[in-house]
Structures are given as C-alpha cells and as structure tokens.
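Record pair follows.
FIRST:
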Amino acid sequence: MSPLLKNSIILLSAKRKMLQEMGERLETLVVGSSHGDFGFDPKYCPGSFNLCCRSQDLKHSYFLYKQMTETVGSIKTLVIFYSVFPLETSSNAVPARRISASR
C-alpha cells in the first residue's frame, strides 16, 4: 500500500469518527475539493463539519450532501467549495478544449 493511500484511509477514518461524534449538532455541511479541505476550518464555525477532500467533484459532493441530509436531519446550511479543474479530471468529464488565439 502506498503511503499516500495509507494516509488517505487514516484521514477518512478520522473524519468518519468525528462526524459520528458530532451527531445532531451538525448544522452546516461543507463539501468540495481540497481548497475547501484546507481553506475551511470548522472551529471558526460552530456546528459545522468539513467533508471536503482532494479532487472531489460536484457529483460526489452532491451524493455526500444527499447521504448526510438523509441520515442527519439537522443540516441547515450547505457550503460548496468548487474548483474548475475537477471537471477535467472526473470520470465523467467532458474533454478539455484547447483555446487558440489565432483562427
């Protein structure tokens, strides 16, 4: 197992445990790419939980949101961190187009 995969598994396991401990106190859910993972600190927003992770696209953000609203009824606010680059790297991406200055 690569060190990167091992670290990712440990991080996701820790997030799952913290999320379970938060329970019904969860009011603000944060989803999206690594910009949100590193840019949103829940300690400054009580009742929030950050489920952002590296290369998370809108599809996966939606399914995380859907799952959380079905299991935790207390979510009042959704924060989405979105970066353009995941469109080009997701499994269902539209191929990137090259833009040329001369035509």
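SECOND:
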Amino acid sequence: MVRLVVLQATRLIVVGGVAGCGAALLLNRLLANMLVGVSAHDPVSLSAACVLMVMIAMIASAIPAAAAGRTELASVLSSE
C-alpha cells in the first residue's frame, strides 16, 4: 500500500520537476535579476535546486504514506 502511494507520488513529482526545471531554463533571463552571486546559466545550482525539491517532495509523500500504512484497517472500519 505504501509503495503504491509513493509510486504514484513519484510520477507526479518527476513530471513537476521536469516541467519546473524546463521552465527555469526557459525563463532564466527573468530569473537573472533575482540571483545574487550566481549566474543564471549555472548548471550546478539549477540541478542542485531540482534535486533538493524532488527529495523534499519524496519525503513529504513518504511520511504520510508510511503512517497510513501502519494503521489497522479493521479497527478504522469498525469505528465507523
């Protein structure tokens, strides 16, 4: 059950990550004004930010899935 939830979340995270990083690459001229000390074409910073966001999203989806996986379904259904 937990694996299914995390797998579905992973699909959404990957699609969002690719779309977000692609948009950042396309809109780098607008972002250049907001960056201080880093160029807009810095591949290390861009890839580090993308990896960090994906990791945070994976953790944010795995923690509730693991908590839900530990619950006893019979007790939840019988309390209704």
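COMMENT: Residues 25 and 55 are 20 Å apart (CA to CA).
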